[in-house]
Design goal:
- By secondary structure, this protein is mainly α.
- The protein is 86% helix and 0% strand.
- It is built from 5 helices and no strands.
- Helix 1 (2-29) packs across helix 2 (36-58), helix 2 runs antiparallel to helix 3 and helix 3 packs across helix 4.
- The longest helix is centred in the N-terminal third of the chain and has 28 residues, at 2-29.
- It is globular and about 50 Å long.
C-alpha cells in the first residue's frame, strides 16, 4: 500500500507542478479576464485521463502502477475535473442517465456553493 501511495503522490506532484506552469503560461499569454489557463488545463486533463484509461483498457502494456501514476496521480494533480468527467462518462456508458444528471448537476451546483461559502468564511474570521 505504501508503494502505491508513493506512486500516486509522485504523479500528483508532477501533475500539480504541470498545472501551475501550464495555467500560468496560458493565462499570461492570453489577455483576458476569462480564466483561460484553468479552462484549457481542465480540457487537457480530461483528454489525458480519457487517453490513459483508454490505453489501459486496450491492454497495450500499461500496468496497474503506471495507470495509477498517470490517472489518479498525474491527472488528479493536474486537474480533479478530469476525474469528474471520467466518472460522468462511465455513468453514461453504463446507461445510468439519472445518476449522470444528478452527479453532474449537483457537483457543479454544490461545489459552486461550497466555494462561495469557503470564500465568505474567510471574510468572517
Amino acid at each position: 500500500m505504501i508503494k502505491l501511495l508513493l506512486i500516486i503522490g509522485t504523479g500528483s506532484f508532477f501533475g500539480g507542478i504541470s498545472r501551475f506552469l501550464a495555467s500560468r503560461y496560458i493565462q499570461n499569454t492570453v489577455v483576458s479576464s476569462f480564466p483561460f489557463g484553468t479552462f484549457i488545463v481542465n480540457i487537457i486533463g480530461c483528454f489525458l485521463i480519457g487517453l490513459f484509461f483508454g490505453l489501459s483498457d486496450r491492454g497495450n502494456g500499461m500496468n496497474a502502477e503506471w495507470r495509477m501514476f498517470l490517472t489518479v496521480g498525474f491527472c488528479g494533480g493536474f486537474t480533479t475535473f478530469s476525474a469528474f468527467s471520467n466518472e460522468n462518462l462511465s455513468l453514461l456508458r453504463d446507461g445510468n442517465i439519472f445518476y449522470f444528471a444528478l452527479y453532474a448537476s449537483l457537483s457543479v451546483f454544490v461545489c459552486l456553493i461550497a466555494t462561495y461559502l469557503g470564500n465568505v468564511t474567510t471574510k468572517i474570521f
